[in-house]
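so my prof wants the structure for this chain in the tokens format not the other one, which i didnt know existed until like an hour ago. anyway here's the sequence
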Amino acid sequence: MTSLTLVRRIAARPAIVFDALITPDGISSWWGPDAGPVLVAETDPRVGGRYRCRFRTLGGGEYESSGEYLEVSPPERLAMTWKWLDEAEGAGQMMIVIELRPVAEGTELTFTQSGFEDEDNRLGHEKGWSGSLDKLERRFAGAPAAAKV
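here's what i got, hopefully its the right format
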């Protein structure tokens, strides 16, 4: 099985970025590969809690993923299971770990997803998550100085 790691520098302090990872409003601002809307964002950010996100791409496709929070350690680390809604129980379940580290620019975010069955699947997710993380980065690009401290 292969994994995917993406790193971004975000112009906001880790606590603010962490909030964007676990709140419905935060998730609605960045989840999804393009500028299409997030239709549903539900979270229960505690160990054993669940999340669900449904989004529509600009091409009109709708996709939903969900999972369980395995670790919620604000503002440094978030770990959760992840799978598409339409996959059978136990099939296609993966792991996502997001680590946040303070840097001069704000936060260095390291996103790791593991459990891919093959390289084609990993490449598809790399494209999707890259688009999502680009949106998260842009969300804070024009943030007030207070958000960056």
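also thought this was worth mentioning. The chain has one domain: 2-139.
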